Amino acid sequence: MRRSLVMLLVAVVAALGIYYFVSRPKDAPPQPPANAQTAPTPAPAPAATPPAKPAKDSVVIGMSLEPPVLDSSLNAAAAIREITYQNIYESLTRVDRNGKIVPGLAESWTVSPDGKEYVFKLRSGVKYHDGEAFDASDVKFSIDRLIAPGPDNKIPAKNLYVSIEKVEVVDPQTVKITMKNPDAFVLFNLGVADAAIVDPKSSPTNGTNPVGTGPFKFKERKEGDSLVLVKADTYRNPAAIKLNTVTFKFVKDPSAQINALLAGDVDTFPGFQAPELVDQLKKDNRFAVVIGSTQGETILSTNNGEGKPMAKLEVRQAIAHAINREELIAAESGFAIPIGSHYSPADPAYIDLTKTYPFDLAKAKELMKAAGYENGFEATLKLPPVGYAKRSGEVLVSQLGKIGIKLSIVQLEWPQWLSEVFRERNYDFTIVAHTEAYDIDRYARDGYYWNYKSEPFRAVYREMVATVDEGKRADLLKQLQTIIAKDAVNGFLYQLGKIGVWNKNLVGMWENSPTPSIDLTEVYWK
Amino acid sequence: MLEFLSRRLFAALFTLVAASLVVFGVLEVLPGDPALVMLGMEAQPDTLAALRKDLGLDRPVWVRYFAWVGDMLTFDLGRSQAYKTDVATMLLVRLQVTVPLAIGAVTFAILLGLPLGILAAWRHGKAGDYGVMMFSQAGIAVPNFWIGLLLVLVFSLGLGLFPAGGFPGWEKDFGASLRALALPIIALGLPEAAILSRIARSAMLDTLREDYIRTARAKGVAERDVLFRHALRNALIPIITIIGLFFAFQVGGAIIIESVFYLPGVGQLVYQSINNRDLVVIKDVVILLTFFVLLINLAIDVIYVLVDPRPKIKA
Q: Which of A155, A511, B122, B251 is most enclosed, with most CB atoms within 10 A?
């Protein structure tokens, strides 16, 4: 009897102890560093900090996914672009933190009035990390491999550059690009990671040992763990770069990501992917949580193909009326912006089309009846393994259930999703964020997985691409957004928010994500 | 003995061949095209075909199977399709995390679970027994990843004694690497210690009821010798069996624990390779793990014979 009392007492004390650590306020004075390298024993109270402490010049950046290789011409993984773009490699133009096109390796350019000739004036004094000089022949080499015809060109993004006819070296500092037809997006596309300018000599080994002209050079990599960049002594403007060492650390599990931040092992997660855990970080006053925009239009992709109920416009309109975006965004903890078409609200040409088919269940049921599906139908919702798809998927099962569409969820892995849904178009519905910039062109494509075919859309699209005048092009872009919104091609849900978490003293990280990049050129410690 | 061993060896070899067929077959029918994963959503049909050819995926199934088996027999693990590096190099680095983790966890389980089990059997029906049983119930019920999260919360975020995760590397900082593995070893080993204490307790209880124990006690053998020389030795068979199984369990456990503590180990490599459809890596690693488990089983068989000479030779 007495013994069991003692044991009960021990259990209660242990429980209280655990409770103490779990519930301890996180904005209390900072805990001793939990860093293995610096604190072999519990750290003693810090002595008075020396007055002139040099500014911290290294940063540890957390990422969910690890890049397989470090050359975007070999693999489509976004993580490659996030790490290498602007840091290791540079392109002719450059997409800045707000999505504006600014000079990159080209310091200026001119466009012919018909939009078919671009002449780029290159920067002088640019060197690669291995000491090789950069000149116009490298630009020709790099873009030639993007536009090379036939199957030997295995560059994932080659489709972005099909409007380029040829590249000519005018002189070592000047390059002329001739277009097959005017392309409104060519300056943007020449400024993203896929159009990185590389040296023919080092390009074969860039996958494992990347060499570029950017401010940081590759130092070492521990697969499955981390990757280290250091400031490049060959960079043309070394004084502008404040960081000397950049470590990318790969942590996949969201709760491990939180632990890494709280323990101080990682200074920032620029793309934090667990909105449900953000509150925990907001309570800790060491961190800033910044919500920015992405290019990720999240849609209920709908198979418009022959023989599917969704081939009927009325059914798609009914679905559009049945979608309640407020609920969907609440499931994303509010970190998303509603969209009514396939276009980023961050772009100047955006128009709000969320009221095209306002939430109205009575109207939706009427349309289902008109389409001959009064009793609804059964369909599958094949989801990729991402948090937003799971969350929105469950909400949509209930929302569409109200108009008789009985969705059954099938959970897929990415490779399976790519083959089955995207490639073979063997699906009814799926949910995915289309993260490429200006990807409204997919609606003009043959054989894209939505099976959407609209001559009016294609006609306007062709006109838009060939329009050089920006004002006129914006008008046409608005028309395009309206056509697909009215056709209710897909369920247009929301624009994903970019949840950036970083140490409050870290300045200069990108708030938005106009193109996949963790640009560190302007980052420093306060 | 020799005949027994060679029979076991033959069985292991047969299992290995069967496993290689299964691994290869499963990867064959597993949906998801490695070339498509590499090229992504903008992949063009001509490029896909060309890349599949580069990866050797256009060859007939049996050609690919025998090419792979041939490579394995000559210790050539090939190159990762996604990472473009040698699988052997990748694996060697990852094993530096996973092997110490696995051995550490099993050692921890033995050092904690075995004494507790003996104690519980010795103090059968008393407070010590109940305490051990409570521990083992809790340890079996609570999943290892949750123990891991709790340990991080208390010992790294709360007390700052251990890192929350990551692995600096043995050659870089030996002490820090050791500390980095401490919590993962406990998280992985604690549930195993719980299982082991239970098995050890019941095995010991069984032997402690035997006549020869009563005889030993009656003739005045010291209690310590009764416990360890008479009872434990005869209770070893189930204990060794379960310890052997632990090694096989480490493979699955490592995937989870390495993810909680973001350790660059073999478990994470397998997980990532499956997501990348890096067929070369998956095939190699899975068959090597099978080989390793068979090896452990073989070792266990040998230990059985050494510990208890009775059941050998005649099967």
A: A155
Please check whether residues B64 and B101 belong to one and the same domain: no
Confidence of residue A506 (pLDDT cuts 50, 70, 90): very high
Residues of B with Cβ-Cβ distance to A76 under 8 angstroms: 38-43
Residue B40 with chain A: CB contacts under 8 Å: 75-77, 156, 418
Beta bridge mates, A220: A228
Of B15, B41, B73, which residue sits at a domain end? B73
d(CA B290, CA B283): 11
B259 and B174 in a common domain = yes
What 3-state class would DSSP assign to A292? strand
Interface size A-B, in CB pairs within 8 Å, comes to: 193
| In-domain check, residue B36 | yes
Q: Are residues B120 and B161 in the same domain?
A: yes
Across-strand partners of A166?
A: A178
B48 and B137 together in one domain: no
Asked if residue B65 and residue B194 are part of one domain, the reply reads: no
> Beta A377-383 vs A506-507: how paired, if at all?
unpaired
Residue B77: name the closest of B86, B66, B85 by CA.
Answer: B86
B81 inside domain: no
Mean pLDDT of chain A: 88
pLDDT score of A224: 87
Token match 């309570």: residue?
A: A283
Quote ipTM for the complex. Answer: 0.85
Annotate A79-137 with DSSP letters as a single string. HHHHHHBTTTB--SEEE-TTS-EEESSEEEEEE-TTS-EEEEEEPSS-B-TTSPBP-HH
Measure B197 CA to nearest chain A CA, in Å: 19
Per-residue pLDDT band for A42 (boundaries 50, 70, 90) equals very low
Sign of CA dihedral A174, A170, A187, A89: negative
What are the backbone dihedrals phi and psi of residue B198, each rounded to the nearest 5 degrees, phi first?
-65, -45
Confidence band of A337 (pLDDT split at 50, 70, 90): very high
Pairing of strands A405-411, A377-383: parallel
Domain boundary among B242, B261, B276: B276
Instruction: Find chain B residues with C-beta within 8 A of A43's C-beta.
Output: 160
pTM higher than the cut 0.90: no
Are residues B15 and B119 both part of a single domain?
Answer: no
Nearest chain B Cα to A442, which residue? Answer: B42
User: Are residues B209 and B60 part of one domain?
Assistant: no
Does residue B206 form part of some domain?
yes
Quick check: B299 pLDDT over 70?
yes
Residue spans of beta strands (DSSP E) within A29-80: 58-63
**In which band, very low, low, confident or very high, does the pLDDT at B276 lie, cut at 50, 70 and 90?**
confident
Domain assignment present for B291: no
**Does B103 lie in the same domain as B141?**
yes
What integer pLDDT is reported at residue A13 of this predicted model? 52
A415:B37 CB<8 A: yes
Beta bridge partners of A269: A501
Domain count, chain B: 2
DSSP string, B97-165: HHHHHHHHHHHHHHHHHHHHHHHHHHTTTSHHHHHHHHHHHHHHHS-HHHHHHHHIIIIIIIS--S-SS
Per-residue pLDDT tens over the stretch A12-30: 555 545 444 444 444 433 3
Question: Residue B100 has which token pair?
Answer: 């110490």
Helix axes B233-260, B279-307, angle to 10 degrees: 160
Residue B38 with chain A: CB contacts under 8 Å: 68, 74-76, 156
Q: What is the CATH number of the domain that holds B158?
A: 1.10.3720.10
- What is the average pLDDT across A361-377? 93
